[in-house]
Amino acid sequence: MGEEMPEIVALMKLALQQAKIAFYSLEVISCGRNRSNETRNATRHAEMEAIDVLLEEWKEKGLTKHEVVEMFSKCYLYVTCEPCIMCASVLSFIGIKEVYYGCANDKIGGCGSILFLTNACFLHLIEQKDRGTN
């Protein structure tokens, strides 16, 4: 872990400059900023903006759903502030590998400050059964 610390610190400094940035293989592959006020759309947090950029790029490249899942599973997200409950849920759902943030979000934090939504217990798989059998 000690060898990785300077690298992590450098990446967090970059995140603080650009607001929200997704990393894959230590390369910036997407970035976003909070556009909720600008767009008058409460879902346009920086995490969602960065994810949408990736989804559009991967769609244009013709990636399959399986390949998209594989790509997200290798991504790291560096953000200035703890993702909110909505964003933490999305990050968990799409399978982002790790999230690093600079400060807690004591109002709507979804990575531990208010709720902890970034582990498998919040991903409920619903088993479908034939209604005719019990």
UniProtKB/TrEMBL annotation:
Coiled coil: none
Molecular functions per Gene Ontology: tRNA-specific adenosine-34 deaminase activity; zinc ion binding
UniProt entry keywords in alphabetical sequence: Hydrolase, Metal-binding, Zinc
Domain CMP/dCMP-type deaminase residue range list: 6-113
GO BP annotation list: tRNA wobble adenosine to inosine editing
Superkingdom of origin: Eukaryota
Protein name: CMP/dCMP-type deaminase domain-containing protein
Keyword Nucleotidyltransferase: no
Transmembrane segments: none
A Pfam match: dCMP_cyt_deam_1
SUPFAM superfamilies in the record: Cytidine deaminase-like
Classification via PROSITE patterns: CYT_DCMP_DEAMINASES_1, CYT_DCMP_DEAMINASES_2
